[in-house]
Every structure is written in structure tokens, then in C-alpha cells.
Amino acid sequence: MENELLWVIASALLAVAATNLAWLIGRVLPRLGSAARVSGHERGIAALRWLVAALFLLLPPLIAWRYGALSLYAMGLSDLDWLGNVWTGGPLTALIAALLVFGWLVYRRTRPHSLRTRVSWQADVAPWWLAPLDAALRQWHWAFYRAGFIGWIAAGLPPLGASAGAAPLVQWVEGLRQDPVYWGCWLGLGLVAVAWALNPWTRRGWRDRPEGAVLSAALAVATTGLFATTRNFWLCLACHVIAAMPIAAWFALAPGEASPAIRANE
Question: Which of 227, 243, 222, 239 lies closest to 91, judged by CA?
Fold first, then answer.
């Protein structure tokens, strides 16, 4: 599985290149956006953007698995200790989801009442009932990033020299080798964060509509911690869905504010 990390890095580089290219095209051809709004095709373009983003989240892990470069164990899909996971991970999953929903409600209550009114998801990029699909796509791709680093660490990191100056680095590498699942989780999340930071659409989201970006980041951190504890993809997905569904269906923000619905390139 030595190619796992190469697939993950290639996927991240592709995401950075594609999002920045799309951003530049939008800046160079601003009239396209205006024409879409005038002609009423803006929703169709948003749906197309979502579809492209969904395919990107779905396909690279599938292709890597098809070519034998992806470990289902590292993805959290095989050799699962369901009895232990349910006993320890079940309550933790429920607690994390409840805290995420509670945090969103606290923030929502600080908004003006007119912006807290329940809105129709027909006006957004996707209806609320697509929130589980969004959760599955995100968790699938985040698991792909984790698996790349887990496989890389588990396969054995390159040996380091024994010089005195390298001693701290040697200790750090030895620490990674002690628990590849734990450290692979957080290194994978770090790569996700780098890809987000280099995505101009995400940066604009943090500036103009930070709530959706904060919610995505909170879900990523929370489910990464859950995976590091349980190594169970399905518990991470359940946590994401349990948190996202009520937020999307009942506690959305009004148009003009951030929403937790599926947003392409966020």
C-alpha cells in the first residue's frame, strides 16, 4: 500500500488546482455570472458545481481502491470491533452530535429573529434531505485522506540518522510508529485544512458566510477525533448525519446567511 499517500497528495493538489482555476475563470469572465442571474440559470449552475464537487469527493477513493492503493482497514470499513465500538463509540457519537447541534443553536439565537426563520430549501443549492448524501461524501473523502497517512505510517517511515541534532525528530517519528491510526487521522485532517486554506471559494466563505465553514470544520475535527478513538467509518458518518440533519431541516438561517446545506467547493 505504499502508493496510498501519493494518491491522497495527488487528490489534494488536483483540488487546489481545480478550485483556483475555477476562481480565476470567474474573475476573468464575471459577465457569465451576471448573465446566469439574469437568465434564471443561476440555480442550474450551482447544481452543476455541486455535482462536480460531489464527483471529486467520491471518485478518487474509488479509483485508488480499484487499483489496490487503498486499505479498507485504514478507511475504517473492515475488521471492526462492533461490540466495543457500540459500547464506547455509541455514546460518544451521540454526545458529539448533540454538542454540534447545541453550538449551532447558540449561534443561531444570536442572529436577528428575521434571519432565524425557517426557510424553504428550494431556494438553496440543495434540499435539506440531501444532507445525508453530503455527509457521506465528505466522510468518504476525509477517510481517504486519513487512510493515506495511516498506510504510510504503518508501512514504515524511512529510517533517520542517529546524529544528535536529529534526536527530537527521531523521537517524533517513533511516536508516529507507535500509533499509526491516531497520528494518521490528524495528519490527514491537516492536509484537508491545507486544501481548504488554498481554496479561494472556502476563503471567501470564511469571510462572507463563516457559519457554514465553521460548521464544516467542527464536523471534520469532531469526526476525526471519533475515528481516532473507534476506527469506525460508520460511526463517523452517523455522527455527521445526526448533527447535520436537524440543522439543515429545522434550524437553517435565512437567505443571505450561511447555511449547512451542500455547498460546492466549500
Answer: 239
Eight-state DSSP code of residue 253: P
Identify whether the C-beta of residue 64 lies closer than 8 Å to the C-beta of residue 10: no
CA-wise closest residue to 229 among 97, 103, 87, 132: 87
* Degrees to nearest 5, angle at CA 19 with 228 and 142: 15
C-alpha distances (whole Å) from 80 to each of 20, 144, 233 are 39, 17, 9
What's the rounded Cα separation, in Å, for the pair 151 and 172? 17
Interacting residues of 90 by C-beta distance below 8 A, sequence separation 6+: 235
pLDDT of residue 2: 54
- Comparing 144 with 163, the larger pLDDT belongs to 144
The letter for the amino acid at 139 is Q
Least confident residue range of 96-100, 120-124, 128-132, 222-226: 120-124
Asked if residues 218 and 100 have their Cβ atoms less than 8 Å apart, the reply is yes
Q: What is the dihedral of CA 42, 255, 124, 220, to 10 degrees?
A: 120
Measured distance between the N- and C-terminal CA atoms of the chain, rounded to whole angstroms: 30
- Where does the chain show beta strands of DSSP type E? none
Cell numbers at 159, concatenated: 529510517
